[in-house]
Amino acid sequence: MTKTLFDLVTGESAIITRLQRDGESGIRRRLLDMGVTRGARVYVERHAPLGDPVEVLIKGYHLALRMNEARKIEVSQEEV
Description:
This protein has two helices and five strands; from the N terminus they run βαβββαβ. By secondary structure, the protein is α+β, with helices and mostly antiparallel strands. It has a single domain, classed as SH3 type barrels.
């Protein structure tokens, strides 16, 4: 089973392994522009009470992602 950024709990960190492709290429391009790239370490700061959005720390800055965006980012908690 593939683990996504949304599956991580507050305080966990992981390495981004893949951005899923789908029909919404604008979202994928925006995520790439914000530094959500393969090999980047991401740390989960917090989830909102209903799970949306999730706040992460990536490449030295805080980023809030919607639930559907976080589910498109595959991660690994092992070093790649």
